[in-house]
Design brief:
Elements lengths: L22 E3 L10 H10 L13 E10 L2 E2 L2 E2 L7 H4 L4 E10 L14 E9 L2 E8 L12 H8 L10 H8 L6 H7 L14 E2 L4 E4 L5 E10 L8 H8 L5 H11 L5 E10 L25 E10 L4 H6 L12 E3 L3 H17 L68 E3 L7 H12 L2 H16 L3 H14 L1 H11 L3 H5 L12 E3 L17 E3 L2
Antiparallel strand pairs: 1-14, 2-5, 2-12, 3-4, 5-6, 6-7, 8-10, 9-10, 9-13, 10-11, 11-12, 15-16
Helix pairs in contact: 3-4, 5-10, 10-12, 11-13, 12-13
Length: about 525
């Protein structure tokens, strides 16, 4: 193989000089629309399967409602947001929730070790609000440009068509921010006992905006009223031997009996801004916000009380997107959120069709009927209304076009300043810290199951991957790495002697702020690692 033939390019043949970061204004964003390399990569990824979902293929869904308390914690919700779905106490907003596994195919077992999708469509009086998250509160990566690579590594080998442990750990071993998610996923928390007994989370960081145009950062969480229950690998295997769809059966059987599952909807709130006093970036979706500093504040309750009348029409054709927000809930510069906002809706237009929002399961509530100038496309079966069917544009001197909605009393205007470039995340001290804290928080039986699962995986990996993963685990927690090494027969001294990953901050250290992915800084200097406080 020649040196040139080994160079990564775009489909246009352009050399890819940086495959690690999207281009942003300053280190923390926002991302810019001209990220052509990312757009080509993610939109092609969205079209890799026909017609099954590329991710979240195995799923089940149910209808229900969300009832707001009108408060966030002990304070009026209107202090933080003008979104009516959160401020109007006692109003029951219709919802549809789709639960899913991520990496498996449509007929894969529901006992698989995998994050569980937890996607909610709120059909509010102001239009749809989609909250698309999972059950584990954090994610593997913090930049959406890596999402296709991540899923490729987790999906079956393109030659053997088997999911291989070495591919999974080859990827995560090069991304230390994944260690937190890996520690959770490989523990019993990676296999929820039922959908009714698992948490849900928006994962990404959003903003709440009030009538004064003031914003706060927020995270959304759903806590099951039944409590959380998970399965060990042995328990999951016993269930799978008899039933590959036990979670769907459990959900539908209980709804049919009137045992309606319920979750408390909570938010965590943080002042908007860089929050430099924290050792992690609150926009980093691989990090949890500590609940002792940012408590879970109740907002309302989510109840599921009706099964779909047709699985395909409602569960398979349901379509969600992180960009589907209502006034009073806004985007942050979370790089995964910004990338997902393009990818998710783009996927639905490809998979279901350009007019997927005309399907009843996806259409807004009758009180918020769609009125647009969008026309035609495959499978059009209705025309969005306007005052004059001849005028499908805006504005019109005749005054017969659809009109813009009134402006809010006060707009939220985020200050943005910085040099356009591809940046590393500099606040990396918690890449190992939070994974270690999570390991120490487990009960003894949960740690035992985690170690057993990792030992089995490590035995299926070549030595370079084994050594690097033990090196990572040792930096998370000495006991954590030692137990994995001893169980899998890995030379711990050899692992401990490995150098830090090239171009990455050393464990428990941070890079100098505004460091580009080529190692230079926005000030033109070589990077300087800073010890954690």
């Amino acid at each position: 193989m020649t040196e040139q033939s080994n160079i990564l390019t775009t489909r246009q043949g352009h050399p890819v000089r940086d495959n690690q970061s999207t281009r942003t204004v300053g280190e923390r964003g926002p991302a810019t629309l001209e990220n052509y390399q990312f757009i080509e990569k993610i939109t092609h990824f969205d079209r890799e399967r026909i017609p099954e979902r590329v991710v979240h293929a195995r799923g089940a869904g149910a209808h229900g409602y969300f009832e707001a308390y009108g408060k966030i914690g002990d304070e009026p919700a209107s202090k933080y947001t003008r979104a009516k779905v959160l401020t109007q106490a006692g109003v029951k907003t219709p919802t549809f929730v789709r639960f899913s596994t991520v990496a498996g195919a449509k007929e894969s077992p529901e006992t698989e070790r995998d994050p569980r999708g937890f996607a909610i469509k709120f059909k509010t009086v102001e239009g749809n609000w989609d909250l698309v998250g999972n059950n584990l509160k954090v994610f593997f990566i913090r930049d959406a440009i890596k999402f296709p690579d991540m899923i490729h590594a987790f999906k079956p080998d393109p030659i053997t068509n088997r999911q291989e442990a070495w591919r999974f750990f080859d990827f995560v071993g090069m991304h230390p921010e994944s260690l937190h998610m890996v520690t959770i996923l490989k523990s019993p928390w990676g296999i929820p006992a039922t959908f009714r007994e698992m948490e849900g989370s928006g994962v990404n960081t959003y903003k709440l905006v009030n009538d004064k145009g003031e914003a706060v950062l927020c995270k959304f969480h759903f806590e099951p009223k039944l409590g959380v229950r998970n399965l060990t690998s042995e328990q999951a295997s016993a269930i799978q031997a008899k039933d590959v769809g036990h979670c769907t059966r459990d959900l539908y059987d209980n709804i049919a009996k009137g045992n309606f599952p319920e979750w408390e909807f909570c938010v965590q709130i943080m002042p908007d801004g860089p929050n430099d006093h924290l050792s992690f970036d609150p926009l980093d979706d691989t990090k949890a916000w500590p609940v002792d500093q940012f408590p879970l504040l109740p907002v309302g309750r989510l109840v599921l009380d009706r099964m779909p009348s047709n699985f395909f029409a409602e569960v398979e054709q349901s379509a969600f997107g992180t960009g589907v927000l209502v006034d009073g809930i806004d985007f942050s510069d979370d790089k995964m959120l910004q990338g997902r906002t393009l990818s998710y809706s783009d996927t639905q237009r490809y998979r279901v069709g350009a007019n997927y929002l005309q399907l009843p399961i996806n259409a807004p509530a009758p009180g918020a009927v769609a009125r647009t100038n969008q026309r035609d496309g495959q499978m059009t079966y209705t025309v969005d209304g306007g005052p004059n069917p001849n005028v499908n544009y805006e504005p019109s001197v005749l005054g017969q076009s659809l009109k813009e909605a009134p402006k809010p009393h006060a707009e939220y205007h985020q200050a943005v300043e910085g040099k356009l470039g591809r940046y590393q995340t500099s606040r990396t001290t918690n890449d190992y810290t939070q994974a270690g804290e999570r390991y120490r928080s487990f009960e003894a039986w949960e740690r035992d199951d985690l170690i057993n699962n990792l030992v089995n995986d490590m035995k299926a990996c070549p030595e370079p991957i084994q050594l690097r993963m033990v090196w990572h685990f040792l930096h998370c927690d000495e006991d954590y790495g030692t137990r994995v090494a001893q169980g899998a027969g890995i030379d711990i001294a050899k692992a401990r002697a490995l150098p830090p990953l090239p171009g990455r901050a050393a464990p428990h250290k941070a890079l100098k702020a505004e460091t580009y992915t080529d190692g230079t800084t926005a000030q033109g200097n070589a990077p300087r690692q800073q010890a954690a406080e």
